[in-house]
């Protein structure tokens, strides 16, 4: 059994990790921590787990005093880095669900996150945890930086096109729409029901920090300079991201058949990527670890339109984290995943 | 392995059965049938199952030509009865998710369903499939009539009070609120998004046929005449029923503590009933087979208020059906249930 | 022109008053106040008014330094009372939208609101502003206590039955369901999108302070002791309250026809009460000042079921306040109301 | 008084016309027609108008037998054309809300609508009813083709940029998101609550017929060849369209200030266009005739992002139709508009 701790229990990623790990046959949830609610049962914070997961919440300091194989950090950006720093001599594997080690360097981090980084060395150790691109490195890594939710959908939607050099890397537009859980569990005007429900808006225009995460990962696939226009929007839904991606082919022959072949080859070994024949909806993937992709060529405009849908809390966070853990422990990527798409 | 067929694949109960049975370690989904879509893959009807469950849909007639252990009937009221009739000499167990054999007699059926019954003999064989009340009978039965969604919440909320004789059985009010999936997958004005969303209404006042189902089941617990006022409402949510139940105590000593003790004793062996310390929400049970119950005494008014929450597609339909199948095959009631509450 | 001030601009009732008064031909919005946002334009707080209502927000103290005919207090409970106290020698009329002067005495207030009352004398002056019951008194009053949202629906649904003595006043059940705007504009866990959306719950069981408001008003219609069981629920909708009301007739002859006649006579002069032939939905009244009522008799159970629907921000707050203002100034109740039901 | 008929009462545009015209001081709703519901009161079809608009529905043939000044055609595409043909010698003005006369010729119509056109001559008479571009022509026209909902948002968002020649007309991307009322009142799988709620999808990729409408109108502003990539999406909201528009500047100097100036000048006389300082939300315009626009320049990518929000049933349909009627009758464009943004 993989003795596992979840550090940070009060947010959505913490509770979603519990939901997924609960059914993993090789995992034992040894410890769940929370500074603000320590001493209370986990189910007091997330009452839907009453009778299922009633672990008493521990202070995070208990992690280092316990025999553990695996630690998930479900903490805010800027907080994780200190924990990772403290775990340098620990023997357990770590998946960090924050953005603290996703980028290429402390400098890039500080430019986009507007925050000092306290553990620059972590960038040397951390592997970007998108299994569809980096499974070999993840298998060998004890520190995985779990990707952002928007980047997961954008990168999976674009990787085959970029790597193959089919499209102009200087003109990539990612128009993404996300459910509100991406904004976190904290109550604030942005998450007030009446500001979200029956409503829709764009935000973070030009400056959202997932832009650089997408750019860096895609740039790793191809030498030419690459630039991404990324515009996030807020949907009146709980879960799910749909990215609508516009690219311009720079090769002669493009067709829906050729596109499909390209993606099929690229994702031949990716159990959680589903290539769809029709545009996916958010409910097609809700509660599951799937990324559903549809791509098509518009002859009239010479443009490729790609749609990528995920559940932001699963493939965009906790599910991907469990997938990474599976790789770290030499298990099949799909091990323990029993949550099928919930529709409706 | 229990070789299983699902008859009627196009509706929500059919698709939900597939979702739940998919992870049952002792079940093999041998066959899924649909008259209107036969020849197509199941995932053409429910695209979120693409790559997971692509069984080619069979005509229902194939059921009798196949070696099967278990048949779920996910058919409309008035249609199931003919199938049950046709299965009289079959060797498989049946759980019928329609209302055709839930009531006490063809006469009662015809009075409330306004429809002739073509298989009166079925009423002799059928057992009402609420495991919390009838597990022993279900274990021995090859024909289980799966309860209605509203009745499941109402009966589980009321059974301890009625059986113990604590409340006046002549004055029971059940004010229920249900998500729209209870109205079925068919597109009609009632299910049009803009008629449901940001909206709310009562319907079926005085005449909803679940009234008699609730009354009959509760009457079985206590000799005194019992009468239920049942008012259903339509919520702008996909899944879930919350019943708010008003009863008047007829014994001297009532208190929250005494109530809790009564319910705890009654449900001591019921793994899917959770007695909650605070009022449950629909998302506390969504996608799970739980019935969450909260009950409290109002001294000021001398009234007991009981809240019971279920997912109408799981504990109110497909989950309860799988629970019944487990009993029919001598398995633990909880066998194969891996879908935890999805919140948010 | 009625020179008008709105005290308290940041909440929903403040913004809704502006929306309604904007089109009133006899009203000039002279001043809008806010302590927390003073100096900013009103449209900075409520951007949908950009270009329409850009008044610079004033401190509340400016009210007494300005020539005004009318002041609406859109303030929280416990805050209004001090303003009313300060306005005792003012010449303008006041409608207070808080709960501070709705009840019969400071003692009752303190028992249910768990708060000291700083202006007991106000109870002598204040008139309960439900025009359908108290129009004559409102016309003569310079201090109107605008009713609560739940009480508006409950009292209008029950008043004809109680006044006529048709039902047992000791056994009245009001099962109410409200949209989230009733919980206010402030971000808190209760109003977080993901706690509300696709969800439903009961709250405030046995103890909601609107209980006593309903009881006191109905008790004024009939000498017999009256007791109300009131259970509020939270709907995943922005606006609207539907109350489902259960009463037991204590007279011999009851029928749907007789009920309709009773209500028609009672509301003959009430322009905003619509007696419906079918159960109303929330969208039938959304954005309008209507209270839609449906009532029916269930012979089987000898019970009357009454449904009453309002928009909690209009008839349950700002619209009713404007209706009261019309009465205070000798205008027709309907004067200035141009906002029709918005459906969908 | 303008004696007015609304032809086609059962859909959302018909009911929305009634809502808006009801408060127009110069309009008398003389007649409402419906073939399928004739003989019934309008409020039987749209119960929220009970007591407000109870006109008995007439057959459409009654239009030509009645003295009328104005006829609104709220009919499906392909049906309107025959009515317009039949009205050739009539004296009333017509605003056609269908797509039958929006395009430049029968040939274009037939190519994109896949339908024969029965009244080619109508294209000579019809004026495209976007008042912000064509007010002079609308004033003189007796046949106005009311724009599509998506085109209204897209064209208003793009017109200043295109007319000024600031951006590359060959590379325009319009990523639009619409509420479900755009799909009509008819119950079909697309409009089933559970397919829409908590969900999101793209549809009509590459082929939506609003593409050509946008292209043709923008092409009229500038000689260079213009091509639009238009991708519609379906939001889980009732009303509203937000278009996110990507263009590439082809002039040296672009800045947020310069963009604002360009738009301000272009829309100096447009009372319903609001230039916003922050990205608009759908609720900022809901129930109103506003088009809210936000535009910004991204130096990093050398791209302009423009957001345009409307209520698809008002500025995208019935409100724009009333605005056109005002122009046809020499009234101010804003005449009779009293419905402010409803938020929340």
UniProtKB/TrEMBL annotation, chains A, B, C, D:
Q: Which molecular function terms from Gene Ontology are attached?
A: N-acetyl-gamma-glutamyl-phosphate reductase activity; NAD binding; NADP+ binding
Reactions this protein catalyses = N-acetyl-L-glutamate 5-semialdehyde + phosphate + NADP(+) = N-acetyl-L-glutamyl 5-phosphate + NADPH + H(+)
Q: Which UniProt keywords apply?
A: Amino-acid biosynthesis, Arginine biosynthesis, Cytoplasm, NADP, Oxidoreductase
Origin: domain of life = Bacteria
* CDD domains in alphabetical order: AGPR_1_C, AGPR_1_N
Question: Where is each Semialdehyde dehydrogenase NAD-binding domain found?
Answer: 3-141
Annotated EC: 1.2.1.38
Pathway note: Amino-acid biosynthesis; L-arginine biosynthesis; N(2)-acetyl-L-ornithine from L-glutamate: step 3/4
Q: Key word Glycoprotein present in the record?
A: no
InterPro entries on file: AGPR, AGPR_AS, AGPR_dimerisation_dom, AGPR_type-1, NAD(P)-bd_dom_sf, Semialdehyde_DH_NAD-bd
Gene3D superfamilies named among the record's database cross-references: Dihydrodipicolinate Reductase, domain 2 (3.30.360.10), NAD(P)-binding Rossmann-like Domain (3.40.50.720)
Q: Name one GO cellular component term.
A: cytoplasm
Oxidoreductase as a keyword of this entry, yes or no, is yes
Identify the PROSITE patterns for this entry: ARGC
Q: Tell me one GO biological process term.
A: L-arginine biosynthetic process
What are the catalytic residues? 149
Compartments (UniProt record): Cytoplasm
HAMAP family in the record: ArgC_type1
Q: What does this protein do?
A: Catalyzes the NADPH-dependent reduction of N-acetyl-5-glutamyl phosphate to yield N-acetyl-L-glutamate 5-semialdehyde.
- Return the similarity comment: Belongs to the NAGSA dehydrogenase family. Type 1 subfamily.
Question: Know the name of this protein?
Answer: N-acetyl-gamma-glutamyl-phosphate reductase
The organism of origin for this protein:
Phaeodactylibacter xiamenensis
């Amino acid at each position: 059994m993989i003795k596992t701790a979840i550090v940070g229990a009060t947010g959505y990623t913490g509770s979603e990790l519990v939901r997924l790990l609960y059914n993993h046959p090789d995992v034992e949830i040894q410890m769940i921590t929370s500074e603000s609610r320590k001493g209370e049962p986990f189910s007091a914070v997330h009452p839907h787990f009453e009778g299922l997961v009633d672990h008493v919440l521990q202070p995070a300091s208990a992690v280092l005093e316990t025999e553990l194989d695996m630690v998930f950090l479900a903490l805010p950006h800027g907080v994780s880095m200190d924990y990772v720093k403290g775990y340098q001599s620990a023997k357990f594997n770590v998946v960090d669900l924050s953005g603290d080690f996703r980028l290429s360097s402390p400098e890039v981090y500080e430019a986009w996150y507007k925050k000092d980084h306290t553990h620059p060395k972590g960038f040397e150790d951390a592997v970007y945890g998108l299994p569809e691109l980096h499974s070999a490195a993840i298998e060998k890594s004890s520190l995985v930086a779990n990707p952002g939710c928007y980047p997961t959908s954008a990168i999976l939607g674009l990787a085959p096109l970029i790597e193959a050099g089919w499209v102009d890397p200087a003109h990539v537009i990612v128009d993404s729409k996300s459910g509100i859980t991406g904004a976190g569990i904290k109550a604030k005007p942005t998450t007030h029901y009446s500001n979200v429900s029956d409503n829709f808006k764009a935000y973070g225009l030009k400056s959202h920090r997932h832009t650089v995460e997408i750019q860096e990962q895609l740039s790793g696939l191809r030498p030419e300079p690459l630039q991404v226009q990324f515009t996030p929007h807020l949907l009146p839904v709980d879960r799910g991201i749909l990215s609508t991606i516009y690219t311009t082919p720079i090769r002669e022959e493009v067709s829906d058949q050729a596109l499909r072949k390209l993606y099929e080859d690229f994702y031949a070994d990716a159990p959680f990527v589903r290539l769809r024949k029709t545009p996916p909806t958010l409910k097609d993937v809700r509660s599951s670890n799937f990324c559903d992709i549809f791509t098509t060529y518009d002859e009239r405009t010479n443009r490729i339109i790609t749609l990528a849908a995920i559940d932001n809390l699963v493939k965009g966070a906790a599910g991907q984290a469990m997938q990474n853990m599976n790789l770290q422990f030499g298990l099949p990527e799909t091990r323990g995943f029993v949550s099928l798409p919930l529709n409706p």
